[in-house]
Amino acid sequence: MSSLRDKFYLASGYAAGFCIALIMVVILMQIVGRIFGFIIPSAENVSGYALAASTFFGLAYTFHEGGHIRVSLVIQKWPPRARYIQELVVLIFGFGLACYMTFYCWHMVYESYIFEEVSHGYIPIPIWIPQIPVGLGMTALAVAMLDDLIAVLSKQTPSYQQHENDINLEEI
């Protein structure tokens, strides 16, 4: 099961990377289009949507890999019991916040679909379509936080801390 979760987080990271590559392709096409005298319709909108998608798809992968900013200089010196309580409190709060954000991201998608909102570019793109990756990315982050919350409650090392310990061992 752990390898399935790892593949899920890796897929989220690949989706973020794909969106960044999409931004590059759209902007490159826009530059080439200007040289040859044609425009790429709604290029700014598409690259903006891809930027939002890459940001939210990257959240779960970055969290799982220990890439989010933590004040490890302070908490590494704490005794194990204090660190356990701190990790537990932060993960509970973070998971609650991720669930709240996930709910409202999907609510935003639903409202955009119901009210038939479209973008204001050359191509009227229904807004709910580019909002789906935002909901998927937040869902993935909530799953990643729940995964590590369960690990901490089971007295196991959370995934982000394993990578943090790997980094600290390499620096020594």
TrEMBL record:
Limits of the Tripartite ATP-independent periplasmic transporters DctQ component domain: 23-151
Keywords associated with the record: Cell inner membrane, Cell membrane, Membrane, Transmembrane, Transmembrane helix, Transport
Transmembrane segments: 12-40, 46-63, 84-103, 123-146
Membrane topology, record value: Multi-pass membrane protein
The organism's place on the tree of life at top rank: Bacteria
UniProt subcellular location: Cell inner membrane
Chief location category: membrane
Subunit structure: The complex comprises the extracytoplasmic solute receptor protein and the two transmembrane proteins.
Job description of the protein: Part of the tripartite ATP-independent periplasmic (TRAP) transport system.
Stated family: Belongs to the TRAP transporter small permease family.
Name assigned to this protein: TRAP transporter small permease protein
Annotated organism of origin: Marinobacter albus
